[in-house]
Design a protein that fits this description.
With 143 residues, the chain is of the alpha/beta class. The protein has one domain: Ribosomal Protein L13p, Chain: A (Alpha-Beta Complex). Helices cover 29% and strands 17% of the residues. It is built from 5 helices and 6 strands; from the N terminus they run βαβαββαααββ. The strands form 2 sheets. Strands 5-2-1-6 form a 4-stranded parallel sheet, covered by helices on one side. It is globular and about 55 Å long. The N and C termini lie far apart (34 Å). The relative contact order is 0.22.
């Protein structure tokens, strides 16, 4: 018995579904794991690590995502300006106030592999702060 590996030709763009996830009240880490697995295609029996077999994911209500414990105040994101000594730190609360989509996108990107395939996968993620989204024409399946 041999293992079947998916090829790019077998799993084209016509077979990819659109999935809708509501992030309201969900923990950030658990949401990011679920989204990353769908983007990679780990929920499919044809999953192959070196082929993009995942689906498109739409995340709504990103501004209502929950951080457990004291992460709202203690979790920091570092940004580097390019000049010596100019690294800036911002708390999760501040980042949520600036752009609520950043927390979800950053968490999901950290759970994807660190290669060129991850760049393709992250492009299939659409995150919206509110309950409205622009991808109604794709008829997403709600999870």
């Amino acid at each position: 018995m041999s293992t079947t590996l998916a090829k790019k030709e077998q799993h084209g763009s016509g077979q990819k579904r659109w999935v809708l996830l509501d992030a309201a009240g969900m923990s950030l880490g658990r949401l990011a794991v679920r989204v990353a697995n769908i983007l990679r295609g780990r929920h499919r029996p044809i999953y192959t690590p070196h082929v993009d077999t995942g689906d498109f994911v739409i995340v709504i209500n990103a501004d209502k995502v929950r951080l457990t414990g004291a992460k709202d105040a203690k979790k920091e994101y570092m940004f580097y300006t390019g000049f010596i000594g100019n690294e800036r730190y911002r708390s999760a609360t501040e980042m949520k106030g600036r752009d609520s989509r950043f927390l979800v996108e950053h968490a999901v990107k950290g759970m994807l592999p660190k290669n060129r395939l991850a760049d393709q996968m992250i492009r299939k993620l659409k995150v919206y702060g509110g309950a409205e989204h622009r991808n109604g024409a794709q008829m997403p399946v709600k999870l």
